[in-house]
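Purpose: get a first structural picture of the assembly so the mutagenesis plan has something to point at.
Setup: four entries, given in the order below. No constraints added.
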Amino acid sequence: MYERKISPNLNCGLDLVAEVLYGKWKIRLLWFINEGYKRPSELQRKIPDASRRVLNIQLNELEGHELISKVIYPQAPPKVEYSLTGFGRSLIPVIAALGNWGDENADRLRAVILKQIGQNHDQSK
Amino acid sequence: MYERKISPNLNCGLDLVAEVLYGKWKIRLLWFINEGYKRPSELQRKIPDASRRVLNIQLNELEGHELISKVIYPQAPPKVEYSLTGFGRSLIPVIAALGNWGDENADRLRAVILKQIGQNHDQSK
DNA sequence: ACAATATGGGAAAAATTTATCCCTATGCAA
DNA sequence: TTGCATAGGGATAAATTTTTCCCATATTGT
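Result (structure tokens, whole complex):
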């Protein structure tokens, strides 16, 4: 496991949220688990662009941060189910606010994002 | 400038928000600009842990995404002021929701974050 | 026997982001 | 003249995150 060389800031609320939500797929993992997709393989199918490996890593981190909990059924083949903890559930409205803002402004966001990507190509001199 | 090799997902609202907010200091930059810290040097003093370089880069990206606007006063030494656009201002309640959640759960967050960092040290075998 | 599914982790490479260092320019103060 | 503040960008190193590849276990279906 990678060990940080620069220790994080834990001053204000924004620092703290960042620390648990920063990770390319974490917000979507929380979202899908909240929607009822509980098993790792289901989540991997819902988020096909993420590698299996990172999803495992980020699920572990979310569990370590007590936002989700994990139940391992002693079966073979193994069965695992994640679910939100109360703590994690309290984060859902905040994530919903983010997603709603994105949905409400989807057209404009797509436009400005693509505009900036286009500029990078032109600048390649 | 760095040119992406993997193109981003722009499917749902959460993808789109992530695209404009993902960046270690962007949320704080928006927050402080909203609080009235407008000049680059002020922002650098408010966020001393960030290098001057990244703040410039992320300010440029926020400007490209039309969340902030920039006014250059033709003086010497130069004077620059950023401010939120209407678009950027509409994001403030969402950021506030994030920060409030973090503030409300600050103690618990600090605890779980530090707990997980501690485990990394033990595992170094 | 062989392939497929499910879960998970190690090791190394690749991608991406952030930090460090240096250079430019102007004006003001000691 | 030297030093400091303002603003900003290039080049490169370092840090961090994510991907890719491989291995292991146990069961079911072919």
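Strands of chain A lie at 68-73, 79-84.
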